[in-house]
């Protein structure tokens, strides 16, 4: 009987270790994905600001984006002045998610160059 108890305790420890490993695996980085196809497009850690306005409401400024395709560059008059931008499309479904700042013409806006705007309505949270 004692032997059986030891085996059961050992099995219980293995099951608990397995559960812990599964939790660690699913606790990957917090991501944002395309609202249409769930393709990962950015890391939560790459958010610079949540205080931006997009075409369809609130938007986030990201340092980096992934799994995207850029549209052609164009000059756009935005709330903060003239910028050269390129629309950001999901590389899987081609949904327009926001834009990339290519060039800012006003000195106070230069910090945006090379950064990405992703609209809150166009992205969903993953691994939260």
Number of helices: 1
Q: Which series of helices and strands comes N to C? A: HEEEEEEEEE
- Rounded to an integer in angstroms, the radius of gyration calculated over CA atoms is 22 Å
What proportion strand? over 45%
Low-confidence stretches: 1-8, 12-25
**Structural class estimated from helices and strands:** alpha+beta
* Widest sheet: strand ordering: 3-4-8-7-6-5
- Approximate helicity band: 10-25%
Principal-axis shape: globular
Topology:
Layout: H1 2-26, E1 31-34, E2 40-43, E3 47-54, E4 57-62, E5 68-78, E6 81-90, E7 96-104, E8 116-119, E9 123-126
Antiparallel strand pairs: 1-2, 1-9, 3-4, 4-8, 5-6, 6-7, 7-8
Task: Characterise the protein shown here.
The chain has 128 residues and is of the alpha+beta class. It is built from one helix and nine strands; from the N terminus they run αβββββββββ. It has one helix at 2-26, and strands at 31-34, 40-43, 47-54, 57-62, 68-78, 81-90, 96-104, 116-119, 123-126. It has a six-stranded antiparallel beta sheet, with no helix packed on it. Strands 2-1-9 form a three-stranded antiparallel beta sheet, with no helix packed on it. The model is unreliable at 1-8 and 12-25 (pLDDT under 50).
List keywords for this structure.
alpha+beta, 3-stranded antiparallel sheet, about 20% helix, about 130 residues, globular, 6-stranded antiparallel sheet
What's a concise summary of this model?
By secondary structure, the chain is α+β, with helices and mostly antiparallel strands. The chain has 1 helix and 9 strands; from the N terminus they run H-E-E-E-E-E-E-E-E-E.
């Amino acid at each position: 009987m004692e032997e059986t108890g030891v085996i059961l305790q050992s099995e219980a420890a293995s099951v608990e270790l397995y559960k812990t490993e599964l939790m660690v695996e699913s606790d990957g980085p917090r991501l944002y994905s395309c609202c249409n196809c769930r393709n990962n497009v950015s890391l939560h850690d790459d958010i610079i600001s949540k205080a931006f306005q997009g075409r369809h409401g609130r938007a986030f400024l990201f340092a980096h984006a992934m799994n995207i395709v850029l549209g052609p560059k164009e000059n756009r008059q935005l709330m903060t002045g003239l910028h050269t931008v390129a629309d950001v499309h999901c590389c899987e479904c081609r949904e327009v998610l926001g834009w990339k700042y290519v060039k800012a013409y006003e000195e106070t806006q230069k910090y945006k160059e090379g950064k990405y705007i992703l609209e809150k309505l166009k992205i969903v949270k993953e691994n939260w």
